[in-house]
From TrEMBL:
GO molecular function annotation: catalytic activity
Gene3D superfamilies in the record: alpha/beta hydrolase (3.40.50.1820)
Name of protein: Pimeloyl-ACP methyl ester carboxylesterase
Ranges annotated as spanning the membrane: none
Pfam family, one: Abhydrolase_6
Domain AB hydrolase-1: 22-235
Coiled-coil positions: none
Organism: Spelaeicoccus albus
């Protein structure tokens, strides 16, 4: 783990394991640590796991100018080109799922398979009255996020209000991806969401219908599904990435 330079910008990343490359893409106000319940499991399953932290997130410093999904996708493409020597599996959670979709559209040669977790691709997919965005603007949550940011960011806690404002502006305006544009994506996809997530099940069904090769899993849980049920989520993802069509023994995950 450590800081590298990608396309002239400092980027923090963590790499562990051996095998086919698997890149984990985190959500807003998060970083590599948000995948604490996934990384060891995927390494044990035989993948080389990369977890880059995007600009203004985790240990990676912010960059002047507005934040949007397009620029984060470009940053991710530059990282894949430089650090990953083969088409990689992408697993995107929340904002990371939007980044994965944009990367798969722009550079299909870089993506083997992709998993999209708990994210709408346009505003039609938002759950009416969803609590996540409101919670991110509450004073208590802002204070918590500021402490977490200041603990690791080279920009320090005093810079957090700038990152918070840029991120909330992005979330308010984006994403607005037309689902018919997904038809150009060649990578097989797995869409996962919780049944009490921030995205409607109907939207995820429409996303899967728009992708040429995709399947859907709706599991009991919320937007925090990967940490609520990592046993189930990780097993689904590993099975999908291995292209394993056999029926798993789900008895271990029930009860």
């Amino acid at each position: 783990m450590g800081q590298i330079e990608v396309a002239g910008l400092p980027v923090w990343h963590e790499v562990s394991g051996d095998g086919d490359p698997l890149v984990l893409l985190h959500g807003a106000f998060a970083g590599a640590s948000s995948f604490f319940a996934q990384t060891p499991s995927f390494v044990e399953a035989g993948f080389r796991v990369h977890v880059p932290e995007r600009r203004g997130h985790g240990h990676t410093p912010d960059v002047d100018g507005p934040l949007n999904y397009s620029v984060m996708a470009d940053d991710t493409i530059a990282y894949l080109d430089q650090e990953v020597d083969a088409p990689a599996h992408l697993v995107g959670w929340s904002d990371g799922a939007v980044v994965a979709v944009l990367v798969a559209r722009r550079r299909p040669d870089l993506v083997a398979r992709m998993v999209l977790i708990g994210q709408y691709l346009n505003s039609a997919g938002k759950v009416p009255g969803g609590e996540l965005i409101a919670s991110l603007e509450s004073p208590d949550m802002i204070a918590l996020l500021r402490r977490s940011y200041g603990a690791v960011s080279p920009d320090g806690a005093d810079h957090f209000p700038i990152v918070h404002a840029k991120t909330m502006a992005m979330i308010a305006a984006e994403p607005e991806i037309a689902l018919d544009s997904l038809r150009s994506i060649t990578a097989p996809a797995l869409v996962i969401q919780g049944d009490r997530d921030e995205v409607t099940v109907e939207h995820s069904v429409a996303v899967v219908a728009s992708l040429p090769d995709a399947r859907l899993a709706v599991l009991p849980g919320t937007h925090a599904l990967p940490v609520e049920r990592p046993d189930l989520v990780n097993a689904l993802i590993v099975s999908f990435l291995r292209n394993d069509d056999t029926t798993p023994d789900w008895s271990a995950f029930t009860g």
